[in-house]
Amino acid sequence: MDPSRHSDALRAAQMYYLQDLTMDAIARELRTSRSTVSRLLSSARDSGLVQIQIRNPLDTGPELEGMIRRHYNVDVHVVPVLETLNEAETLDRVAMQAARTIGPIVDSNAIIGVAWGSTLSAVSRHLTRKITHDSVIVQLNGAGNMHTTGITYASDIMRRFGSAYGARVEQFPVPAFFDHAGTKTAMWNERSVQRILELQAKMSIAIFGVGSVDADYPSHVYAGGYLDESDLNILATSDVVGDVATVFFRGDGSSDGIVLNERSTGPSLAQLRQVRRRICVVSGESKINGLRGALTAGLATDLILDEATARRLVDFEGLAAASG
Amino acid sequence: MDPSRHSDALRAAQMYYLQDLTMDAIARELRTSRSTVSRLLSSARDSGLVQIQIRNPLDTGPELEGMIRRHYNVDVHVVPVLETLNEAETLDRVAMQAARTIGPIVDSNAIIGVAWGSTLSAVSRHLTRKITHDSVIVQLNGAGNMHTTGITYASDIMRRFGSAYGARVEQFPVPAFFDHAGTKTAMWNERSVQRILELQAKMSIAIFGVGSVDADYPSHVYAGGYLDESDLNILATSDVVGDVATVFFRGDGSSDGIVLNERSTGPSLAQLRQVRRRICVVSGESKINGLRGALTAGLATDLILDEATARRLVDFEGLAAASG
DNA sequence: GTCCGTTCTGCACGTTTGTGCATAGAGCTT
DNA sequence: AAGCTCTATGCACAAACGTGCAGAACGGAC
């Protein structure tokens, strides 16, 4: 881009946001039209030059947040949404706010693990640009299935993250689930795969949604041809409530003995918990069971969710009592 | 304040800044009028709920900044100001932008050393609120002189810092200069003084302007009855170019053998250099000599100054050559 | 209860801002 | 140089916004 335009954008942003001048005054100084200033500012905003963040003082925040925070020990961001909004609109709002909340967390030299799914897809569409150096986006779990290699869907998400943060993108070109655990073991010894696994092991940030087995609109994983009849039966009979990055867990947060996980390509829950910043984005009340499992399992350090779901989370089993 | 108003402000801020809704839409959701939303947002901004910051990518910044940064190894923020502005207006702009630049740097548990003077006074008037816990504002140097105890002037500055950040304020109730070095030695052994000195030793942030001996409008120190005729003579004959917190230095950054410093109450340059974040605010070209000395002495890690002064700093002795 | 002072609210108005559109200009090809 | 495409600009209009003001609501004091 024209460097002088960039520097004009910077000047304009400083004068507008830091000195409270009007666009008119800035235009006169920059010897251009007011509309150009308006556009400069908007480009400054979505190129990440201007960072706007909301910090809600932990202690004065609304009750909802406090309760969830105390009970699950996560940093909560409740997204206010009108109750009349439909599922898709809610997801869009949550995704938008999630994208902007993530922005300030991302920094240079970060290794960022990203899952895929409808939630992450929505988030990826709303990312605001922020220039970082030597960051890497690494895919958390494979995306292929019986019908497609899943490449385009997941890779679109990855690519958007990569270009928003100027980061290198490392895809994980394996199916979501192997048919045979043995194949996974073999692949995991391949050097091409190990490169990805090593990156994952060094992740400083992980971003994921949750799948919930009983969601009204089941996640891709449960509906998209990833699992066959017998797999679904296994899930149904093993108390599994949901998944994160195609790794399943029960309501109590445990995941031991769930055979499907041996064929899954996502990081184990234990490995995920090693990551310093683990950001979970959830939209839609019907994911509540999966969400509760994920929180109980301690998978998230940061939780971004819509207000209605937050409320249900609190209502559940008198969680409110824990706040007294 | 009404807690529900606070939480409304938070909701409004999230919807406005993070979801790009219009105030109108937010008003409908909050069941109030648009004007109320406008006011909620403005209260959210100046209560520090909304943080807006400009991060200019170090490598793409305008030439001016790059040159100064490389030469003096400081983080530079050049404040764009119209050249036609007068001294006072420039100071106001610089102070405003300085205040907002400082905001994001301040955090809980910080011990913040603050000097006094016309620059700091202006900055203190533009601070935006930000709630922190267990922060302390500590006065860097005494403010008393022959005519007044200096209490109100300096303490106003301190108080504003304190209330902006919700911090405890520790004043330093001594004169700016002792008449006799021996008195200083004695006082420095007083426990009440030692408490302040210990706080200063633990500072994580220091904020100060610079005085310049030859400034058009001399700093308070040189004009306000702090020094008598013979003191000024000493300064004139010892190559002193300026001061930071009433500690003097020469153009080459040295301060050894300047006798006045033995009676001054500010932290020694060596002590100041221990502080992790040292923010220097300068407005007005006539401070250029003092500024150059301070930078040469390595007193600042962050420099906020107006464009004209920045340009002069670069023009000086072909500093531009250093950028090639 | 009434009174008074303070704070909050919505309205109305003027100001400030975003954006579709037509045009000018830059860069590239032939 | 002419012709082309693509981007940036300014205009003009509509949308969004800030704020003085008058009235409503609140919270003591008596």
Helix content of chain A: 40-55%
Are there runs of chain A of 5+ residues with pLDDT below 50, and where? Answer: 320-324
**Number of contiguous helices of chain A:** 14
Provide the spatial order of strands within the biggest beta sheet of chain A: 2-11-10-6-3-4-5
Radius of gyration of chain A: 21 Å
- How many beta-strand runs of chain A? 11
Q: Mean pLDDT of chain A, nearest integer? A: 85
Oligomer: homodimer
Largest inter-chain interface?
A-B, 36 and 36 residues
In angstroms, what separates the terminal alpha carbons of chain A?
Answer: 56 Å
Order of helices and strands of chain A: HHHEHEHEHEHEHHEEHHEEHEHEH
What form of chain A results from the Cα inertia axes? Answer: globular
The class by helix and strand makeup of chain A works out as alpha/beta
Biggest sheet character of chain A: 7 strands, parallel
Strand content of chain A: 5-15%
